């Protein structure tokens, strides 16, 4: 194995009767990298990666030394490294467009005279189909079967395409629908903590690392696996052997002490951590947890905290390997040889945490005594807006008056046609145990089941206006809820199994019953949802529901019983028992001891082994899908789900020169915290929208529109859905909601898509202006792809979320940030200006300052300095090629 080894770190490790080659951090420390033993554990993973991939080109001696130098400055580094994750994880919403792009690249390779098989994943890729099941049916035993039937009916074209990919590409596996959520399947089965690969007759051992096309890939950090979400665009590049280009990160240490008190859940803890870290400001940074509080956190609790890294803004939320990691690998039925390797390797590398481990050196730290955590929710519209359970009622009433502008309407109730109940502001219309954060954690799911058991015993039922659902993260959950009879107790309150998948948190909540929906919309009610998810952004959970709260699974059940956010669950009764007495939350809340006893009895290694024995096989629906064969895909022009995208049309081996942006028009003026959901929604498609018109024109009935998330394989739908969120507000339109703009110079109001196409005919480039944290939320490549296809050349914001900024560059769009206190408001923009940005063509450098000439309608011109956020030389190459995929394709064709 020829490999420059500047710090003489290559050596062998014997475990049992097996020998592994590895790159030793202690040896590298002895040979010139003094002090690296004190690096954060997550940084040791990056260091090992550089030692292993040193080639004198993409990784040189100086890159490795830069990690040692970090110990001195520990701050934000301008030093760029090339990082190569072990594998890629995908879900189907983001995975389908990635596989579409790979299929399109095969066609483009043929056009450039190369063999299509040059386009193949070079690292292992697992795609878990978990985002397509919708809660159309709920509240009875038939719901699961009917939802599965509907899912297959709606998604045949997509599933056929993915099955083709499974047979056409090497290194690519598909976990069929109905298995679980990708992050939980990753945690319980796919992840190995230490990965191995045979290279030149030797087995090399190295840390398991991954990037995923879902921002909650970070969940696996709980297992000591460094992983985070990237856009589909970056994931495709990683699959094709391109390194992930990144700056050496700041690492924030989060010391945890103490333990959770009686009756406090892991969800209460993670909402507290999320609020603290958002306040601290950790966007683009690593967060690593340390301290003796880790000794009292189960692995599932750690995974719950790691899962919400996107909500606290960090790249990852890392937990080092320790005895709890080993116990979990054993409990979930991993191979004993692998478990032995994980322990031996982690100890040999100084990657093992125990009571004697000295604290690593961090950029900065913060601390939480876990014992101070109180019952919490987050809402009504952001995951970091934590509110104590005892203050939730007051918080909602304040939002009703302020945010929702319903002063004096606290007691307003309206009749619901054909029922014997009425509806008011704050009534909980959705109570969903959903999403990867909590459905992977036995302690909170079992607490929900025990609370349901206690409630049913007292004669309580869920309120009739609540849409109740349970969508576990894996089939193991179904097993342990059933084995002790808790599923029957949940069923009694309407929390029947509706599917295995992401459901409500991604917007797959399904429609509310029609009379309820009509009452809400006719009377402009602020309806509520309480979900155990991680995302509660506006317009995401359900179009009829404005106030969305995140909560633990047992609190989800409690709010289904109470039926309203206008009830203080800490002092007011949930309802009246069968004995005529009021029942309070404290009367039915299970003890920690009861939860632990149930786990001990019902969550078994045998169950994990059985449920994952044949994970790639799928049910009979999956097995029946017929697959077209061939190295290139036979595109079907009639398909409304999968189309060949236009990124490579007319592409030559040499890229065209990029040009300055001259006299661009403004497509939108946006405020702070515009999420990727605002830019590229995943939820339902409105009939009157441009995407709705397209589907109608293609003979798709509105009942079969499905949603944006499932149609991501069709650029025609997705570009029409860009900036089409029902709650987005373009400030050019005086507070009007929805995806509209004005076309200039005539000032006519129209949908953003229609205006973009008109500007395209006129040959006019476009720009977008925004505030702080532009592009927060899910790692959604369509937020960048759609922006590109609309003809938007640049986005100017006060700051960007990490993934979205790199996705814009990956699509050949320039991200620019204002300097100092500048904003579009301070400059007085109205949207009728023209914008010229010079300095793009020619000798552009990373992070160069450019000037925008803004010409106002009255003839005045302002010159505004902007920082070009093309951050690295690799990104500059991608940009000059028109995007990362074009860059990779040209490299492979050459």
Automatic annotation (TrEMBL):
Catalytic activity: citrate = D-threo-isocitrate; (2S,3R)-3-hydroxybutane-1,2,3-tricarboxylate = 2-methyl-cis-aconitate + H2O
InterPro entries with a match to the protein in the record: AcnA_IRP_Swivel, Acnase/IPM_dHydase_lsu_aba_1/3, Acoase/IPM_deHydtase_lsu_aba, Aconitase/3IPM_dehydase_swvl, Aconitase/IRP2, Aconitase_4Fe-4S_BS, Aconitase_4Fe-4S_dom, AconitaseA/IPMdHydase_ssu_swvl
Pfam families: Aconitase (PF00330), Aconitase_C (PF00694)
Entry keywords, A to Z: 4Fe-4S, Iron, Iron-sulfur, Lyase, Metal-binding, RNA-binding, Tricarboxylic acid cycle
SUPFAM superfamilies: Aconitase iron-sulfur domain (SSF53732), LeuD/IlvD-like (SSF52016)
Keyword Metal-binding annotated: yes
Highest taxon listed in the record's lineage: Bacteria
GO molecular function, one term: RNA binding
Pathway(s) where this gene product acts: Organic acid metabolism; propanoate degradation; Carbohydrate metabolism; tricarboxylic acid cycle; isocitrate from oxaloacetate: step 2/2
One record GO biological process: tricarboxylic acid cycle
Enzyme Commission number(s) from the entry: 4.2.1.3
CDD domains tied to this protein: AcnA_IRP (cd01586), AcnA_IRP_Swivel (cd01580)
Subunit note: Monomer.
Family of this protein: Belongs to the aconitase/IPM isomerase family.
Protein name: Aconitate hydratase
Organism: Methylopila jiangsuensis
Taxon lineage: Bacteria, Pseudomonadati, Pseudomonadota, Alphaproteobacteria, Hyphomicrobiales
Designated gene of the protein: acnA
């Amino acid at each position: 194995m020829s490999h420059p080894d500047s710090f003489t770190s290559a050596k062998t490790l014997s475990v049992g009767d097996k020998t592994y080659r590895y790159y030793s951090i202690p040896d590298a420390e002895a040979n010139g990298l003094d002090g690296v033993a004190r690096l954060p554990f997550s940084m040791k993973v990056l260091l090992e990666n550089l030692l292993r991939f040193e080639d004198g080109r993409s990784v040189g001696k100086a890159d490795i030394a830069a990690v040692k130098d970090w110990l001195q400055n520990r701050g934000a580094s301008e030093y760029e490294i090339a990082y190569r994750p072990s594998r890629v994880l995908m879900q189907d919403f983001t995975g389908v467009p990635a596989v579409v792009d790979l299929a399109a690249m095969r066609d483009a390779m043929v056009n450039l005279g190369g063999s299509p098989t040059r386009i193949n994943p070079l690292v292992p890729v697992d795609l878990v189909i978990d985002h397509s099941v919708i809660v159309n049916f709920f509240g009875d035993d038939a719901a699961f079967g009917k939802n599965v039937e509907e899912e297959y009916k709606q998604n045949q074209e997509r599933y056929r395409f993915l099955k083709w990919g499974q047979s056409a590409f090497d290194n690519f596996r598909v976990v069929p629908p109905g298995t679980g959520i990708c992050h939980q399947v990753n945690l319980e089965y796919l992840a190995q903590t230490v990965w191995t690969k045979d290279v030149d007759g030797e087995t090399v051992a190295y840390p398991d690392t991954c990037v995923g096309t879902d921002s909650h890939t970070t969940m696996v950090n709980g297992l000591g696996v460094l992983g985070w979400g990237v856009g589909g665009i970056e994931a495709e590049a990683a699959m094709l052997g391109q390194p992930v280009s990144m700056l050496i990160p700041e690492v924030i240490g989060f010391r945890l002490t103490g333990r959770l008190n009686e009756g406090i859940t892991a969800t209460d803890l993670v909402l507290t951590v999320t609020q603290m870290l958002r306040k601290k400001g950790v966007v683009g940074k690593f967060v690593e947890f340390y301290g003796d509080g880790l000794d009292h956190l189960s692995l599932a609790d750690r995974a719950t905290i790691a899962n919400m890294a996107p909500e606290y803004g960090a790249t990852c939320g890392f937990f080092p390997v320790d005895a709890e990691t080993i116990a979990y690998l054993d409990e979930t039925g991993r191979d004993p040889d692998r478990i032995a390797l994980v322990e031996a390797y982690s100890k040999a590398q100084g990657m093992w945490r125990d009571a004697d481990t000295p604290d690593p050196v961090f950029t900065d730290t913060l601390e939480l005594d876990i014992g101070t955590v109180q019952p919490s929710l987050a809402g009504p519209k952001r995951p970091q807006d934590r509110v104590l359970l005892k203050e939730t009622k007051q918080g909602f009433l304040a939002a009703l008056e302020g945010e929702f502008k319903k002063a004096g309407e606290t007691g307003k109730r309206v009749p619901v046609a054909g029922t014997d109940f009425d509806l008011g502001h704050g009534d909980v219309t959705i109570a969903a145990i959903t999403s990867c954060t909590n459905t992977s954690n036995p302690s909170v799911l079992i607490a929900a089941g025990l609370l349901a058991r206690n409630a049913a015993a007292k004669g309580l039922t869920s309120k009739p206006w609540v849409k109740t659902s349970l969508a576990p993260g894996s089939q193991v959950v179904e097993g342990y809820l059933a084995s002790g009879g808790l599923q029957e107790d949940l069923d009694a309150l309407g929390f029947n199994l509706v599917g295995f998948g992401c459901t409500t948190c991604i917007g797959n909540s399904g429609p509310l019953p029609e009379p309820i929906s009509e009452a809400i919309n006719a009377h402009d009610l602020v309806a509520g949802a309480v979900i155990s998810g991680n995302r509660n952004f506006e317009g995401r959970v359900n179009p009829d529901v404005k106030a969305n709260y995140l909560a633990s699974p047992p609190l989800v059940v409690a709010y289904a019983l109470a039926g309203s956010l206008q009830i203080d669950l800490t002092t007011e009764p949930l309802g009246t028992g069968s004995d005529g007495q009021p029942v309070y939350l404290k009367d039915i809340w299970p003890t920690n001891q009861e939860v632990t006893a149930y786990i001990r009895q019902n969550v078994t290694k045998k169950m994990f082994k059985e449920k994952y024995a044949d994970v790639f096989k799928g049910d009979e629906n999956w097995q029946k899908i017929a697959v077209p064969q061939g190295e290139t895909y036979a595109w079907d022009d009639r398909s409304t789900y999968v189309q060949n995208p236009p990124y490579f049309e007319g592409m030559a081996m040499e890229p065209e020169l990029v040009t300055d942006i001259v006299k661009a028009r403004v497509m939108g003026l946006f405020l702070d915290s515009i999420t990727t959901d605002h830019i590229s929604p995943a939820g339902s498609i409105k009939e009157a929208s441009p995407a709705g018109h397209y589907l109608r024109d293609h003979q798709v009935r509105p009942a079969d529109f499905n949603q944006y998330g499932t149609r991501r394989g069709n650029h025609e739908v997705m570009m029409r859905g860009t900036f089409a969120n029902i709650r987005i507000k373009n400030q050019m339109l005086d507070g009007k909601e929805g995806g509209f703009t004005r076309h200039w110079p005539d000032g006519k109001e129209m949908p953003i898509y229609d205006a973009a196409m008109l500007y395209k005919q006129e040959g006019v480039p476009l720009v977008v202006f925004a505030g702080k944290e532009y592009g927060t939320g899910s790692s959604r490549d369509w937020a960048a792809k759609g922006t590109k296809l609309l003809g938007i050349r640049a986005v100017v914001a006060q700051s960007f979320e990490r993934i979205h900024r790199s996705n814009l560059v990956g699509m050949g769009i320039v991200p620019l940030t204002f300097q100092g206190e500048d904003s579009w408001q301070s400059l007085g923009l109205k949207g009728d200006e023209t914008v010229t940005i010079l300095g793009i063509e020619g000798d552009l450098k990373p992070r160069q300052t450019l000037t925008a000439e803004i010409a106002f309608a009255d003839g005045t011109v302002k010159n505004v300095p902007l920082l070009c956020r093309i951050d690295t030389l690799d990104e500059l190459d991608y940009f000059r090629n028109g995007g990362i995929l074009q860059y990779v394709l040209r490299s492979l064709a050459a």
